[in-house]
Design brief:
936 residues, alpha/beta, Leucine-rich repeat, LRR (right-handed beta-alpha superhelix), Phosphorylase Kinase, domain 1, 15-stranded mixed β-sheet, seven-stranded parallel β-sheet, 17 helices, flat, disordered C terminus
Length: 936
């Protein structure tokens, strides 16, 4: 017992000594106290069973060197000092004494010198991330002894020499058979890639060796590592033919061989059906015709074959690949007639055939509306009249996108220096940095669905890990010179205007430790953080200066106080007059008598004012039993009027309230909007500091409810009456299955010169919003068509627009294959559709939906044409589109086993946009009652 106590005492003495030594060597560490228990809320320290097991100080603006006394933290399992660019000097060799280490993350510091050979002592190590430093010298061969290593990242250093492999007495990288990640790019490695490096025992997924000085052949043993998914050999000096067994690697999705000296035939990749991104540009392959097997790569999004000695005609079926986005075949010997065909991919954004021998192209190719470049081909050079055509000019590069996350239904505000306005329009100090995606599977940077995917996955991740995050903004997507995809992110704090050190440390740790998993399309990544503004020296110095300024200001203030008192009387009188004039704006209901609607304000049509006590009585004191929904604004309650009418009461929480004048304006406009497909406003409450809107109660639940319930019990059973969550615009079904939209919002039209659209800040629900509206902030008829198309896809898939980080439009685009039965959509159809024996009309319905969600508004049909096509589909499946609601509803139920189940619902939704009562859609865009952008 005494021996155990002595050991424990020695441990604590050594631990505290080690931590205080770190504090002495590194500036800006937390204020650790020698007399306190390190496990008692010391910042950056986590304990298990009274033992310090984690030291996590990411993004703390630490400065100085890492002390060798780090070895005294003998129970340490996680060491993460990432994103402290002012940590310099060598990594102490004493780190090898921390035999319990599992994770070592030192990303984005400024360590220099050699990686200590003692790193090989850490037998429990799973993660070793030393990327983005200034380490030099060779990779220590001792790393080969780390038999449990999963993640090895030494990228972006100054490491040199050959890649080490074992030779009997000396270990090497080939012994890391459990490792799935070799990230070794952007160093100075030289020599050949050792044949012994690869074996069939390895489970390696990512092999990144780009931007080094490697020479010699690609070893044939590479073909035995069948788990590989990403290979990057680009930007080296590799030579010789590509191994013929490369196509054994059927799991590879990204293959980069560009900018080497490879010779022999263009490698045959037949059978590699998971390939998304292929770059073989700038090599010395043998002259050969364009490889026919490329047209069989069904998953291909990007083909880069610049300067590869290809000749002959480009096969038309290449452009039929359904996922194809980019084709770059510059500086080859391609000739003849270019035929893009009529079935080219709807995602195809760029065909670059500069510096070839194309003599003509078919008139069908002129129907291709995206970027086609034929500069320095005979077609442009020998025909003067063609020089004015867009394809005979080099367009501006599209290797960047200026997108940034739009405001979330709020007005951005001006913030103090160092702060930014968040997507929720709150001023705060965001945590900033850049995500670097090392091998994305796509090349179309203009496709907004990728932004939606990454933004949604970041927010879902923050919420699931209970990070103190209010919102996330993504922006400035572009490809760098190394073909990495860069994206700026800002993470905003929740509940206050800045993160504390623990919050910053937790966010940095999950990004450095690869806990965050982006959507599959983005591939492997790493993160570089900027110094956090709230902790920066500039900010601290400004606070000091501010304190001095307060003292000086107080002295001056005492001097002028007498003068201010003399002016106070006059000022008070003046302010009283101003306050009286402003009173009507600040308290717009102050002079309104609820019992005398003729002379007061607001001017309501068909809606009334309720007192707080009335609504309290109608909802059983706003009891939980009467709560039927909630969202970011507050809760929705079910109420019953004395007449027996059911009502839904939307009660705003304090932080969601508008100014009185804005609330008055909203209810005036809402009371004037009447349409059979809009949920009617019954009244409002502006009493006792409350803001509530009272709507009619719709009995058949929301579209979301019906989509989910149909899977379980069918439409002919009574659905549960619910408003659902109104955090996004919600569709409800009345007793005849007529669609009604709630929370539709209001937009103000612009001036005389902008009659074709509504211009406003970007607002609306993520998933429904027109991609063009993101960029132009102009709402047009075709914006509604896009949103309507998303609803159509919801109905046939029973999925939300964004579900588990996946955007419904992209899901269908990726799965669709018009050459196969049911367009190959069986796996994503609503199960109640998929189980039916007759799906007559489904293909036409899908075709219509996909035309509605075309990226370009010019390619979408008019809403009138959409309605006509839906009517045609209904007639095809035996439903009468002109029937009254009740009969149509009955018909719908009777035929639900054999007919397209969404016809009645869809036609009802179309009525939201085209109806005899409301006039044409184009006219409605000039009416003040037009719905909010992004809402179907």
């Amino acid at each position: 017992m005494e021996k155990e106590q002595n050991c424990s005492k020695l441990y604590w003495q050594g631990l505290v000594s080690g931590l205080l030594s770190l504090q002495d060597e590194l500036k800006n560490t937390p204020n650790w106290k020698a007399s306190a228990d390190p496990c008692d809320n010391w910042e950056g320290i986590r304990c298990t069973s009274s033992r310090v097991t984690s030291l996590i100080l990411t993004s703390m603006n630490l400065m100085g060197k890492l002390a060798s006394e780090i070895s005294q933290l003998s129970e340490l399992q996680t060491l993460d000092l990432s994103y402290n660019k002012n940590i310099t000097g060598q990594l102490p060799s004493s780190i090898g004494n921390l035999m319990n280490l599992i994770h070592v993350n030192l990303i984005g510091c400024s360590f220099s010198g050699s990686i200590p050979d003692t790193i090989g002592n850490l037998q429990k190590l799973i993660t070793l991330s030393l990327n983005n430093n200034s380490f030099s010298g060779h990779i220590p061969t001792s790393i080969g002894r780390l038999s449990n290593l999963y993640w090895l990242d030494l990228a972006e250093n100054q490491l040199e020499g050959p890649l080490p492999v074992s030779d009997g007495n000396t270990p090497g990288l080939d012994m890391l058979v459990k490792a799935k990640h070799f990230h070794l790019e952007k160093n100075k490695f030289s020599g050949e890639i050792p044949s012994k490096l690869f074996s069939s025992n390895m489970v390696l997924k990512h092999l990144l060796l780009s931007s080094n000085y490697l020479t010699g052949n690609i070893p044939e043993t590479l073909g035995s590592v069948t788990h590989l998914e990403v290979i990057r050999f680009d930007r080296n000096s590799l030579s010789g033919p590509v191994p013929s067994n490369l196509n054994n690697l059927v799991n590879v999705s990204e293959l980069y061989l560009s900018n080497n000296k490879l010779t022999g035939p263009i490698p045959n990749l037949t059978g590699m059906n998971n390939l998304h991104y292929v770059d073989m540009s700038n090599n010395s392959f043998d002259e050969s015709d364009f490889p026919p097997w490329i047209s069989s790569l069904e998953s291909l999004t990007t083909l880069m074959m610049e300067n590869t000695h290809c000749q002959g005609e480009v096969p038309v079926n290449l452009f039929n690949l359904t996922n194809l986005q980019t084709v770059v075949l510059r500086n080859n010997r391609l000739n003849g007639t270019l035929d893009v065909g009529t079935a080219y991919s709807n995602q195809l954004q760029l065909i670059d055939l500069q510096e070839n021998s194309i003599e003509s192209f078919t008139t069908r190719a002129k129907g291709y509306n995206n970027t086609l470049i034929l500069v320095e081909n005979p077609f442009c050079e020998n025909n003067v009249e063609n020089n004015v055509e867009s394809y005979c000019m080099v367009p501006q590069s599209k290797n960047t996108s200026a997108f940034s996350t739009p405001p979330n239904n709020c007005q951005p505000i001006n913030c103090n220096l160092g702060q930014d306005s968040s997507p929720n329009c709150k001023c705060a100090y965001p945590y900033k940095g850049t995500l670097y995606f090392r091998a994305p599977s796509f090349s179309d940077l203009g496709n907004l669905s990728y932004y939606i995917d990454i933004h949604s996955s970041l927010m879902e991740f923050a919420q699931s890990h209970k990070l103190p995050v209010d919102s996330v903004s993504v922006s400035n997507l572009f490809k760098d010179l190394s073909e990495n995809l860069e994206m700026s992110i800002q993470v905003f704090p929740s509940g206050q205007d800045h993160f504390n050190r623990t919050g910053i440390s937790n966010i940095g740790f999950v990004l450095s430790n690869q806990t965050f998993k982006p959507p599959n399309e983005f591939g492997p990544f790493y993160f570089k953080a900027m110094p956090y503004g709230f902790f920066s020296e500039e900010y601290i110095e400004s606070k000091k200066q501010s304190s001095i300024g307060v003292i000086i200001g107080a002295a001056i203030g005492g001097t002028v106080l007498l003068l201010l008192l003399l002016l106070a009387g006059f000022y008070a009188f003046h302010q009283k007059r101003r306050a009286e004039r402003a009173s009507d704006q600040l308290h717009p209901f102050a002079r309104w008598d609820p019992n005398n609607g003729s002379g007061g304000i607001p001017q309501l049509k068909g809606a009334r004012c309720f007192s707080f006590e009335e609504l309290k009585k109608y909802t059983n004191k706003f009891s939980e039993e009467n709560s039927i929904g909630s969202g970011g604004y507050g809760k929705v309650y079910l109420g019953t009027l004395p007449t027996g009418q059911l009502i839904a009461i939307k009660r705003a929480q304090k932080e969601s309230m508008q100014g009185g004048l804005e609330f008055k304006t909203e209810i005036e406009l809402l009371s004037r909007v009447h349409h059979k497909n809009l949920v009617s406003l019954v009244g409002f409450c502006f009493d006792q500091g409350e803001q509530m809107l009272v709507y009619e109660y719709v009995p058949n639940g929301s579209l979301k409810d019906n989509l989910s319930v149909r899977i379980q019990v069918g439409l002919d059973e009574e659905t549960k009456i619910a408003l659902g969550t109104l955090s996004q615009p919600t569709f409800f079904l009345d007793e005849h299955l007529n669609a009604k939209v709630s929370d539709f919002g209001l937009s103000k039209p612009m001036g005389e010169g902008e009659k074709g659209h509504v211009s406003t800040q970007v607002k609306g629900t993520m998933g429904y919003m027109d991609p063009e509206y993101y960029m132009t902030q102009q709402l047009t008829e075709k914006s509604d068509v896009y949103s309507f198309g998303v609803v159509m896809l919801e109905l046939i898939t029973a999925r939300m627009p964004i579900e588990r980080g996946k955007y419904i439009v992209r899901v269908v685009q990726t799965a669709i294959d018009r050459t196969k039965d049911l367009y190959n959509l069986q796996e994503i159809l609503d199960p109640t559709i998929g189980l039916q024996t007759s799906l007559k009309g489904l293909e036409k319905f899908v075709d219509l939906a996909m035309r509605c969600v075309e990226e370009s508004g010019g390619n979408r049909p008019a809403m009138g044409d959409v309605v006509k096509e839906i009517e045609n589909v209904m007639q095809m499946v035996g439903l009468n589109p002109n029937a009254e609601s009740a009969s149509t509803s009955a018909s719908y139920k009777d035929n639900s086993k054999t007919n397209l189940k969404t016809s009645k619902l869809i036609l009802s939704w179309a009525g939201l946009n085209l109806n005899a009562e409301s006039g044409s859609t184009s006219t409605s865009y000039e009416d003040v009652s037009k719905g909010n952008p992004g809402h179907p």
